Amino acid sequence: MADLGFVGLGVMGGRIARRLLAAGHRVTGYNRTKTKAQWLLDVGMRWAESPRAVAQAANVVFTMVTDTAALHAVAHGADGVLAGLAPGKIYVEMSTVSPAASRDLAGDASGRGAQMMDAPVSGSVSTLEEGRLSIMVGGDRSAFERIKPILLDIGPTVTYVGGNGQAVLMKIATNLSLAVHMLAFSEGVALAEKGGIARETAVAVLLSSVVASPMLKYRGPFVLRPPDEAWFDVTMMQKDLGLALELGRQLSVPLPTTAVTNEWLSAARSMGLGGRDFAAVFEVVTYLAGIQKRGIQDLDSETHAQRTGR
Amino acid sequence: MADLGFVGLGVMGGRIARRLLAAGHRVTGYNRTKTKAQWLLDVGMRWAESPRAVAQAANVVFTMVTDTAALHAVAHGADGVLAGLAPGKIYVEMSTVSPAASRDLAGDASGRGAQMMDAPVSGSVSTLEEGRLSIMVGGDRSAFERIKPILLDIGPTVTYVGGNGQAVLMKIATNLSLAVHMLAFSEGVALAEKGGIARETAVAVLLSSVVASPMLKYRGPFVLRPPDEAWFDVTMMQKDLGLALELGRQLSVPLPTTAVTNEWLSAARSMGLGGRDFAAVFEVVTYLAGIQKRGIQDLDSETHAQRTGR
Amino acid sequence: MADLGFVGLGVMGGRIARRLLAAGHRVTGYNRTKTKAQWLLDVGMRWAESPRAVAQAANVVFTMVTDTAALHAVAHGADGVLAGLAPGKIYVEMSTVSPAASRDLAGDASGRGAQMMDAPVSGSVSTLEEGRLSIMVGGDRSAFERIKPILLDIGPTVTYVGGNGQAVLMKIATNLSLAVHMLAFSEGVALAEKGGIARETAVAVLLSSVVASPMLKYRGPFVLRPPDEAWFDVTMMQKDLGLALELGRQLSVPLPTTAVTNEWLSAARSMGLGGRDFAAVFEVVTYLAGIQKRGIQDLDSETHAQRTGR
Amino acid sequence: MADLGFVGLGVMGGRIARRLLAAGHRVTGYNRTKTKAQWLLDVGMRWAESPRAVAQAANVVFTMVTDTAALHAVAHGADGVLAGLAPGKIYVEMSTVSPAASRDLAGDASGRGAQMMDAPVSGSVSTLEEGRLSIMVGGDRSAFERIKPILLDIGPTVTYVGGNGQAVLMKIATNLSLAVHMLAFSEGVALAEKGGIARETAVAVLLSSVVASPMLKYRGPFVLRPPDEAWFDVTMMQKDLGLALELGRQLSVPLPTTAVTNEWLSAARSMGLGGRDFAAVFEVVTYLAGIQKRGIQDLDSETHAQRTGR
């Protein structure tokens, strides 16, 4: 059992904190909107009034936020995590930001005698809840050994990738496939459907085929019935592809399918689908292919039709 | 137990025939090169001297060949399967050809009082051997019910997709994802590797992530060590993408990731990799990214270097 | 002055025949729909009752039709051009078909003692009428020298490209740029417009820039006001890109921008724009970018909206 | 005649300053490396010791530098252009930076009572020297009218595009076509060449066709003989495409051909061609297509071969 801290108790962060509590750890948490953390307080999480206070209360402090700006907001400043770090503490940063931003932060933590690890996850809410989350870790090797048992309480696959920033690089290199797979899946479904096969049948066949990754198994059915709330929305996904493409440019690695897919995400945002799960790339394909939409999506198409004057 | 016939005993066809024999069926087979079928004769398969003779000896006859030309060769003519069909027989065609070619052949079978079904499979040798092959079936519904028990002896997932030609359409709509996934995977590995992560680590992380489809689980490791022989080579894959893109044009369904990936397959063929497993798209990425190749691949790069005068 | 024949008096063919008449040649013509050729008969063209009769009446016979099927229809059969060829005659084929189809036809002509040349043109109606048409020629070199003076009566740039089929290859290699340029132009206009610049201004600036090819100078303004009739429609353009991509596959030359553009043409066709000038790729961009359409285009968008149930 | 200042006397900037001198203006200049400006001093340009001093000496001051960082360096700080601005002066910024960066700078200039205009150019050294340069201008309308006569001394086409930042937006929207056209041209040449047509012939036909923009007329021949020095190198071009793609993401305008082309520029940089004129995308195509390179390029390919261990 360890004294842990957790800043950023959103859809993923909150559920990870819940697992840490369930594993018997003492967890002190902070979230910008406290009400969203009430369910965790109800099961024993302690509350702190700032990221700094969280870091002060814990030996190992986690952050998991949306993007670089949000990370800056919780890490820096008088009330930030960094201000609460002290020699010997470990800071586990689970957000997906650029490797450079991650390395900068690790340098700041080091300046306070602490060690930062980048530890992004691969998987979604369902992967997490099924206890199958994969965690990549970058940073000091011996610090990794210290936190590994705690990370294994979150998910069964914990992989040491390399020095600071390497785990977020690996995360970015993984996430590009999420978007590309979803678009290729959409192409297949649309081709089958316009060729006369029922959409349900096309989805069923694809999901029993060898291309059915865990991601497609949970996200593929969204083309039949969109989820009530986005698990990972178009705008977030485009942020990740943006990181990938920028790294591709810096490292001069051509990323042909990533680049093409990114433009479809732009099209999805333009159609007003930016806040929808990125399975919405399917809507761009059906929209362009002239395939009739159904059910819940009609709302969006109406909005777009009005906006474009049609 | 049924009287079955099998024409085309290659890598996949031979192994399917083996499963049918193992399930207790009487199987009569034919292959252009008889020696390649010896192992099947050794376990009880009967031999016929022509596709026609196979069809005459069986109630249900299967064909599984490389492309439209090869299918034409075994199906038509005096010694072809069609010539051996008779009222009540069922012809199960497992090759990947265009839906139009498949429908034409079904019409020919119908003209002889028989029924043809298109029944392509999703999966590879390993999927088949693990008893996890997925089979899609197009054609007459009641004929489907008759052959379904036999198909279940091949693999556990047998899905009725629709009328003649619909199963090959579905197969084509599935296969485009194979190639796209492999290219996106290659982009991720190359990005990680050029960013300083060991290739083995990158592959391991990707294969424990949510994008790890069954296909990537067996094919992904090929970027570490190419297989001794191609399971599905670049040229074959490009044939399938060509079918997809042509259908996309006919049905006016845009296929952005498929189109881009197809050009990388052209590049792979240009680099002399046409006969290599299509995991070789990775080589195009590393070639362009200036990542040092290793081991067995050096042979190819030398050849290319010589050919291009470098 | 020469005895010429012309089969296929459509938008381009008719105007080319007109130029040949104006240059003083004796021209015998044939068109499937005779009424469309009346304006040429009025200025002195002679009429023949079949392609064969045209070939019999002429020393040099031209054909210019839509595609391979149409070419087959006028060239083969009892009434076809080939049947009217005789030793010493030259057959100048100006359609855009595959190099292989062109070479086959050249072989047939050779079998009758005549010589066929492929002589596709680069340019549009306006290029032709301004006397600036460019003609590429493939086939026998000495036959080329014989017809060169006649071709110079059509346009000022006549280039010998190589053996039979090489000129259509060159035409295909040229035409891919037409479509790609128009899509890139559309991307630029849409980006400027959504960024707040008036569409008219964006078009004006682009057309005074170094990217303003002759093609863009006449086609670019179509994004402001579509032409009354298509000069070269989406379906025709996609036929040409299809030839390019198929050649790319055969010769293993990757064609990245061509492949991507082809998918946008599919999207345009899906939106009901197949019969519109291929400048309609702009509509796909604005459609996806959520930019309000204007004027004459509204008709199409309504149709699409109805068809897709929106 | 006006009192002008010019900061950034590189390949383009220097030649523009030369034209201003030739038109009779008094020009005070500054360049980081003074020796590169000697030829201008020889024809009457005055020298100032800092950008600030240039701005103090002039009523209208120009800057033309490589990127945002370079612009920051010459505009800000104690010795920067801004420090030398005073009420009534006009600052004409000709670099290609993001619209946001341009607007920020305009705000800074406004804070000193001066007015900034963004005035990027479309065209190259040759366009400029032939007196055919096109200049786009963004900013205050009446300030535009004041500087228009001066800009007409640089090139004949001066277009008012809109408010601050709109001209660089338009420039970015134009430049994406440069790269895309060059890649499409390369695809056409490679397809023709691998199909048996001499490269010189393919280039000649394309450059006499309707796709031959002014840009292709001067840059197309680079695939036959690379220029002694890059006019606009791969890295610079990728900077501009990066600005376009980022704007496309912000404004949600899909840019399919731009995105694909950008990845080929990454490939070119990876092949060691980052400092070469962006016509080098042709090398990526021929490299992938297995077409033998010739002459001066061999040097690069050797370097790449060594680096990749081949």
TrEMBL record, chains A, B, C, D:
Keywords: NAD, Oxidoreductase
Protein family: Belongs to the HIBADH-related family.
GO terms of molecular function: NAD binding; NADP binding; oxidoreductase activity
Highest rank taxon of the organism: Bacteria
Entries under InterPro entries matching the protein: 6-PGluconate_DH-like_C_sf, 6PGD_dom2, 6PGDH_NADP-bd, HIBADH-like_NADP-bd, HIBADH-related, HIBADH-related_NP60_sf, NAD(P)-bd_dom_sf
Domain called 3-hydroxyisobutyrate dehydrogenase-like NAD-binding: residue spans: 165-284
This protein's record includes keyword Oxidoreductase: yes
SUPFAM superfamilies, alphabetized: 6-phosphogluconate dehydrogenase C-terminal domain-like, NAD(P)-binding Rossmann-fold domains
Keyword set includes NAD: yes
Protein name: NAD(P)-dependent oxidoreductase
Residue ranges annotated for the 6-phosphogluconate dehydrogenase NADP-binding domain, each copy included: 4-162
Species the sequence originates in: Candidatus Segetimicrobium genomatis
Active site as annotated: 171
